Amino acid sequence: MTELPTRDEMATGKFHQITYACQRGAGCFDELFNDVIDGRVQALCRSDKIGIGAIVVDNRSLASIEKFA
Predict the structure, then answer these.
(1) Where are the domains of the chain?
(2) Which pTM value belongs to this model?
(3) Where are the beta strands (DSSP E) in 1-69?
């Protein structure tokens, strides 16, 4: 997670917390988290949060992965 850019560095795009994305159909957390770590889903880290709650994912990036489309 420390490798992710912070939200302040890249503020463009529509981002949601990773947990919210999972609840809205992006898949189970484990799979989406692995997609973030592997670079298949664009994600940023919010500087005002810690842990998993700091990860936000880009909706456009989610739409491009087959299981979400």
Answers:
(1) 15-62
(2) 0.77
(3) 15-17, 43-45, 55-58
